[in-house]
Amino acid sequence: MAAKKSTKTAKPVMTDLKGQTLITLRTLKEKNPASLATYEKLGGYQQLKRLITDKVKAIDVINQVKVSGLRGRGGAGFPTGLKWSFMPRYFDGTKYLVCNTDEGEPGTFKDRDIIRYNPHQLIEGMAIAAYTLGAEVGYNYIHGEIWAEYEIFESALAEAREAGYIGKNLFGSNVNFDLYAVHGYGAYICGEETALIESIEGKKGQPRFKPPFPASYGVFGKPTNVNNTESYTSIPWILQHGGQAFADVGVAASGGSKLFSVSGHVEKPGNYEVNMGMPFTELLAMAGGVWKGRKLKAVIPGGPSTAVMHAEAILEATMDYNGLGKAGSSLGAGSMIVMDETTCMVKALKRLSYFFYEESCGQCTPCREGTGWVYRVIKRITDGEGKMEDLDLLADVSNNISGRTICALGDAAATPVLSFIKHFRPEFEYYIQHGKSMVDGK
Amino acid sequence: MLSKESIEKIEYELTKYPEDQRRAAVMSALRIVQTEKGWLSPESISDVAQYLGIPEIAALEVATFYNMYDLEPVGEHKITICTNISCMLRNSDEIVEHLQKKLGVGFNEVTKDGKFCLKEGECMGACGGAPLMSVNNTKMHEFLTVEKVDEILKELE
Fold first, then answer.
1. Mean pLDDT calculated for residue range B82-94
2. Do B8 and A94 touch (CB under 8 A)?
3. Is the pLDDT of residue A76 over 60?
């Protein structure tokens, strides 16, 4: 059965585009943003064609990506150009290219919009990476819960295949790139690149020991490059305008634009693509400010694996790697969860702890046992049975998960516990002493 | 027994992988069979394993690891509601309460008429539209209100 050929169209985006720098979502202003015709009209697939027909050297492409300052948009922030240079140049066999669209960390929903509104730029970005790295087969692994986007991507692939942008002998050359969509089925852990590779192979999503890194031992044991959706989607723009132009859009150590997923207590939740280094206050204003005219209490700037911040700290911060680093947290995947003054931080942490407990893959003892332990202690507090020693116990258990697991999920699970208690300790103490929330009295 | 339609779809998935890597298609094969039959019975899991030529345990461990596979019947419409932080901040609790009252079931229970099953889901990666729920793993409903939930249920009746 072939994938459906007709392009599925997406509803126009609801965020106000004013003040946004549309690089990964550059088709947004168009009528049918996701269609091949729209992307071609905007110069789509011309960079891929130029590289292949002019036989541009891989090293020159990688250099442009290095100059651009593009850092991995999935959360780790590793320089993309440097990652590409790890792939072995010569390899006797198939090399693979993988795109990580398995965003499942609470508050993260940017890659979904890239697929909904600009799937062809992602395909071109992947094809350019494949040409550069000599990968002949690629997979885009899409988060299980977003079925409609999986179908949109399948139809975009069919369009690109028919137009000769992916497949065999691209533009009459000997370059081949077969790209496929793969659908996850509900496991946060598969956002970790080696768990994702296991999942592509049809296994449980349990992370692998590193090294070896995917560049030497990835999909089916072959050299594999894994990047995030937003990273690949930035590539065609970088090659069209030059690495320096992309770097200039951002600030030092944070090149380019960034898609921020804004959720929680704001008037206009949604994705906002803005210049790196934008002051938090401006971004908050774009999202309509805190809802119902309430006061800002706290923000998780990059998804729960990044430390929660007090309003005072984030109101002074800029949205880039260094800016948020200096302010005591990190950029992560740009998943900004906004909390107003009515939020009970104990209950918020309880929900996050449950998430990490539920999603631990069970492979490493500190994470498997520790996340459940943390959840049970916090639940004990919200059940009115907490003891003051529990706060030290929570810190102790968290510190013994962090750094003691195969993958970064252990650290991710510990970060919210440590940062919530550090910044909002009086709320936890109150809950323990009174058996009810300091904020909502319940 | 896998139906002809399921086999056709599984064959399409197999074209995505090298010929000696049939195991890679197990996730999509299980999804395809579940979509057709409504849930994954031990027989269905075994059928998938046999068709792909992999050990049954290899299919079973995948079916039990990923949480969108249903190893028990879920009725005609499985409603999975997200209660994670972004949805919680936008009052998913109210939606949960309404659904439970209206359907008369708790989480992981099927209504007496076999029409609905309610599940608590983890983050669906669509938090901008919170609160939200997914029906039968495929249809996402965002910006939920009590009224909107009633309309959706009415359409599904």
1. 97
2. no
3. yes
Mean pLDDT, range B39-50, rounded to an integer: 98
Q: Which pLDDT does position A5 carry in this prediction?
A: 39
Please answer yes or no on whether A269 and B27 come within 8 Å at the CB atom: no
Look at residue A6 and tell me whether its pLDDT is greater than 60. Answer: no
pLDDT at position A17 is: 87
Please answer whether residues A204 and A83 qualify as being in contact, where contact means their C-beta atoms are separated by less than 8 angstroms: no
CB B38: neighbour CB atoms within 10 A?
16
Q: Which of A352, A274, A284 is nearest to A315 (CA)?
A: A284
Task: Tell me the residues of chain B between 25 and 54 that have a Cβ less than 8 Å away from chain A.
Answer: 25-28, 30-31, 54
A109 and A143 Cβ atoms separated by less than 8 Å: no
Local confidence band at A14 (pLDDT 50, 70, 90 cut-offs): low
Distance between CA atoms of residues A190 and A205, nearest Å: 6
Q: With an 8 Å Cβ cutoff, is A269 touching chain B? A: yes
Which band of pLDDT confidence, cut at 50, 70 and 90, is reported for residue A419?
Answer: very high
**Rounded Cα–Cα distance for residues B155 and A23 (Å):** 39
Q: How long, in residues, is chain A?
A: 442
What is the rounded CA–CA span in Å between residue A430 and residue A438? Answer: 6
Within an 8 Å CB–CB cutoff, is residue A343 touching chain B? yes
Tokens of B70: 């249903």
Please check the confidence at residue A7 and state whether its pLDDT lies above 70.
Answer: no
> Alpha-carbon distance A396 to A29, whole Å?
50
Instruction: Give dist(CA A87, CA A80) in Å, integer.
Output: 12
Q: Which residue has the tokens 């992309």?
A: A246
- Residue A16: per-residue pLDDT: 82
- Secondary structure string (H, E, C) spanning chain B: CCCHHHHHHHHHHHCCCCCCCHHHHHHHHHHHHHHHHCCCCHHHHHHHHHHHCCCHHHHHHHHHHCCCCCCCCCCCEEEEEECCHHHHHCCHHHHHHHHHHHHCCCCCEECCCCCEEEEEECCCCCHHHCCCEEECCCEEECCCCHHHHHHHHHHHC
Determine whether A98 is exposed, middle or buried from the number of CB atoms within 10 Å of its CB (0-12, 13-18, 19+): buried
Domain annotation for chain B: domains and CATH numbers: 4-65 (1.10.10.1590), 77-156 (3.40.30.10)
Q: Which amino acid is at A379?
A: K
User: Are B140 and A148 a contacting pair, CB within 8 Å?
Assistant: yes
